[in-house]
Amino acid sequence: MTRLFNEPSAFADEMIEGFVASHGRWVKRVSGGVVRSTRSTPDTVALVIGGGSGHYPAFAGLVGQGLAHGAAMGNLFASPSAQQVYNVAKAANNGAGVLLGYGNYAGDVLHFNQAQDRLHKEGIDCRSIAVTDDVSSAPPAERSKRRGIAGDLTVFKVAAAAAEAGYSMDATVDIAERANDRTRSFGVAFTGCTLPGADHPLFSVPVGRMAVGMGIHGEPGIGETEIPTADELAELLVAKLLTEIPEGLEASAGAAARPRVVPILNGLGSVKYEELFVVYRRVAQLLAAAGLDAVDPQVGELVTSFDMAGTSLTLFWLDDELETLWNAPADAPAFRRGAVTAAALETTEVTDLAEAQASIPAASEESRAGAVRILAALGAAKAVVEANADELGRIDAIAGDGDHGIGMERGVRAAVDAARDAVAGGAGAATTLHFAADAWADKAGGTSGALWGMALRAVGDTVGDTKAPDAEAVAAGVAGAAAAIMEFGKAKPGDKTLVDVLVPFRDALTSGVNAGQSLTEAWGAAATVAQQAAEDTAQLLPLMGRARPHAEKSLGTPDAGAVSMALIVRAIHNTLIERTTIKEKT
């Protein structure tokens, strides 16, 4: 378990600060992550990678000459926010556009795509590559749904070398996609990982058992077996990966032209290097027996999962161009090869591109009064999330990674702080909600951060800053939030997500308001509908997000995002009741 920390909520920021202080020859800090501290060639593509913290050396350890130009660093196991990705991309841009690289997780996809859209609007060419190497997370016919795990390294290294060599954006994207298509990984775990301040791991594996197909965020594996010997584990890993040889290649001991592969035996955090070497000994024998030439084997910690005890094997199937780019020189804190001519340090100060929120537009007295009520509602949401964070994490861990409660806490606390500052500055209802939305998305990260930020912003867009937020405006704002979330996240009712609560809540609230009910009455009735809808998700199979590969595990357990939404709308109703009671007394 994690032993060395100060405040758990400050762990990621303090970790980044220490990393930059100890690796200044390679990186410097910018808002949202790190970029190279050395000068890059002008008018070349910049590769910006990223994801949640807790996976070192991914992602910051791969920033340096011949590798990434920057890394957006989210909180522990939470994707960086769109703002963080945007900040790092702007700082890393060399003038020929930015390629964003990340593992294929819902939160990362949402946030990186938002940042990409924003960069496009500013005239910056920006593309994305989502790594999909984990064979356990979806069948071959659905490779686009697979997770990205240790195969991140092969895709990022090839893309970075292409950018460094002066490839165009189109050519860099093409070679990155080819590397992704030729990378396969499979992993196992023996124990779970424990985040700073937590008194239990995100998941557990029975003593003497091994989880097969484990994800790097603690997602449950596809099955369990008795712990094998080192040789038996090697045989399991190699056999699984050789069932998925890329199209056009053939592994055969008697083949005239032996396919060439880069094997990566990756430690997930607590397995010792010596143990990995024992396993790789047998991996090497099996690859040779299968008619494969192992090129530049990598054995060690390359994409970890905090203190998880586990390992994964990656096979990267080469062609001549991919092999040249893989072998190209690189000099980053955690990955070095060949001779790199040291570039001069970049002396230009990087402007902090975080959006300034100092400017508060004028608002009517009625809208400012509404902002005070919004702050009270957010405060109630904060209280109910904090009271239920452990339970939300427990529910999420059934088929996901167990961090929903932690992420919701980070987001709602930041939203309350931002809303408080807005109200103190005389903001109206819309501005207060916009400040809260941006803070929630930025600090929470992950899928829930993106969606709650989107929801609050949609309600703010509807209520405005010129009049009191009445029942009709609030109902229209909730409808706008539902539409935005479903359009962007692609979830629909029945997918076992917060949409299964948001849609019936929207419908009940709209119906009540149209029938002439007060906001308090309509919201109360809709909150009851939301609570039942959240409970009903226990009978659904997840079709979106990290729980999707382990759908059957979640039967009988409601969706964590659905439960948290139902809790929040009920808590907000309590503030509406209190306000109504106070008005009646006066």
Helix fraction bin: 40-55%
What is the 3D form? globular
How many individual β-strands?
Answer: 15
Largest sheet: 7 strands, mixed
CATH class type of the largest domain: Alpha Beta
Mean pLDDT over the full residue set: 91
Instruction: Please report which band the strand proportion falls in: under 5%, 5-15%, 15-25%, 25-35%, 35-45% or over 45%.
Output: 5-15%
Q: Give me the secondary-structure category.
A: alpha/beta
CATH architecture of the largest domain: 3-Layer(aba) Sandwich
Query: What is the rounded Rg?
Result: 25 Å
CATH superfamily of the largest domain: Dihydroxyacetone kinase, domain 1
List the domain count as a whole number. Answer: 2
- List the uncertain runs: 353-357
Question: Could you characterize the architecture of this molecule?
Answer:
This protein folds into two domains: 8-335, Rossmann fold (3-Layer(aba) Sandwich), CATH 3.40.50; 365-585, Alpha Horseshoe (Serine Threonine Protein Phosphatase 5, Tetratricopeptide repeat). 46% of the residues lie in helices and 14% in strands. Helix 4 (152-164) packs antiparallel against helix 5, helix 9 (365-397) packs antiparallel against helix 16 (560-585) and helix 14 (499-514) runs parallel beside helix 16 (560-585). It has 16 helices and 15 strands. The model is unreliable at 353-357 (pLDDT under 50). The chain is globular, with a radius of gyration of 25 Å. The chain has helices at residues 11-22, 82-92, 106-121, 152-164, 169-181, 230-241, 273-289, 320-326, 365-397, 404-424, 429-444, 446-463, 471-489, 499-514, 519-536, 560-585, and strands at residues 27-30, 33-36, 46-53, 70-76, 98-103, 126-131, 183-191, 209-212, 223-226, 260-267, 293-294, 298-300, 309-317, 330-332, 335-337. Strand 10 (260-267), helix 7 (273-289) and strand 11 (293-294) form a beta-alpha-beta unit. Strands 7, 8, 9, 10, 11, 12 and 13 form a seven-stranded mixed β-sheet that branches. It has a six-stranded mixed β-sheet with strand order 1-2-4-3-5-6, with helices on both faces. It is α/β, with parallel strands linked by helices and 586 residues long.
